[in-house]
Design brief:
The structure is a single chain. The protein has about 240 residues and is α/β, with parallel strands linked by helices. The protein has 12 helices and 8 strands. Strands 1-2-3-4-5-6-7-8 form an 8-stranded parallel beta barrel, surrounded by 4 helices. The longest helix is centred in the C-terminal third of the chain and has 19 residues. The N and C termini lie close together (about 10 Å). Bound molecules: 2-phosphoglycolic acid (PGA). The site of 2-phosphoglycolic acid has 13 residues, from β8. 2-phosphoglycolic acid (PGA) binds next to β8.
Length: about 240
């Protein structure tokens, strides 16, 4: 269960979140719990989560280790700050910051080299779904961004299916729609990396996951977890999602 805070919260607000959140999830041993705050809050989050099962991640990284890349953050920097995870290729990165399947692959390889666990996002836009292109879009994103990994690299990533039309809109994919897309992704994994990889890969659903719809989504055997934006900002609501 991963929370994507996007561009919300200061270090002080991060600390306050964890003070409320940790007691609420102290009994949750059924899943891994990850919070991905903005870069400037990672130190505060790592500090606040110390001694708990909650792990911290970044929301992006650049593929070079260091260099003249103003404004960028590298995998080794994230790792050294105490992050264990990193979100890659989120649709907001693709839509607003020009990320492509090719750069998603570069970032994923860089994350693995830094010993970070990548959460690689894919998902179709509304017009693509309405045109019946969901499967083709997922295939293109998979082929261009994930299929370039070696089997050893692939075994270490988590995939997040996030239909763009469901992100921040309050429109969730129905559990059946999400499961259908997860099945497509799993079959792409099986075709490329084999049946064991297809069975083992964890696929998270993301897009308006809330305390009141998480149970239905998680009842689908195809759905292994959730990547939660808006509802991860409030300790009570993210804790109810974790404890679904
Ligand atoms: P949302 O965001 O839960 O606010 O829809 C999900 C995401 O973008 O990861």
């Amino acid at each position: 269960m991963a929370g994507n805070w996007k561009m919300y919260k200061t270090p002080a607000e991060t600390k306050a979140f964890f003070e409320k959140f940790l007691p609420l999830v102290s009994g949750a041993s059924h899943c891994e719990i990850v919070i991905n705050p903005p870069f400037v809050n990672i130190a505060a989050a790592v500090d606040a989560a110390k001694g708990s099962r909650v792990e911290i991640g970044g929301q992006n990284l650049y593929w070079a280790k260091e260099g003249a890349f103003t404004g960028e953050i590298s995998g080794p920097m994230l790792k050294a700050s105490g992050a264990e995870w990193v979100i890659i290729g989120h649709s907001e990165r693709r839509q607003y910051f020009g990320e492509t399947d090719e750069t998603v692959l570069k970032r994923t390889v860089a994350a693995l080299e830094a010993d970070l666990k990548p959460i690689v996002c894919v998902g179709e836009m509304l017009a693509e779904r309405e045109a019946g292109e969901t499967e083709a879009v997922l295939r293109t994103q998979f082929d261009g961004g994930i299929a370039g990994l070696s089997p050893e690299q692939f075994a270490k990533i988590v995939i997040a299916y996030e239909p763009v039309w469901a992100i921040g809109t309050g429109k969730t994919a129905t559990p059946e729609m999400a499961a259908d897309a997860h099945r497509v992704l799993r079959s792409l994994v099986t075709a490329k990396f084999g049946a064991d990889a297809g069975a083992a890969v964890r696929i998270l659903y993301g897009g308006s996951v809330k305390p009141d719809n998480v149970k239905g989504l998680m009842a689908q055997p195809e759905i292994d977890g959730a990547l939660v934006g808006g509802a991860s900002l409030d300790p009570g609501s993210f804790a109810s999602i974790v404890n679904f």
